Amino acid sequence: MWPRLFALSLVATGIVVVLYRWGRLSTAVILAVGIGLRLFFLPLEPTLTDDAYRYIWDGAVCASGENPYAHKPSDARLVDFQDDDIYALLNSKDYHTVYPPASQLYFWISGYFYSDDWKPAYYTIKIALVASEIIALLLLAQLVPPLLLLLYAWHPLVLIETAGQAHTESGMLLFLVLCLWFAKRQQGSLASIALAFAGMIKLYPFVLFPFLWRRFKWRGLVPGGLTALALLIPFYHPDFFANIKSSLDLYVQYFEFNAGVYYAIKQVFLWWTGDDWSKTLGPFYAWYFCSASL
Question: How would you classify residue 142: left for phi > 0, otherwise alpha for psi between -120 and 50, otherwise beta?
Answer without folding.
Answer: alpha
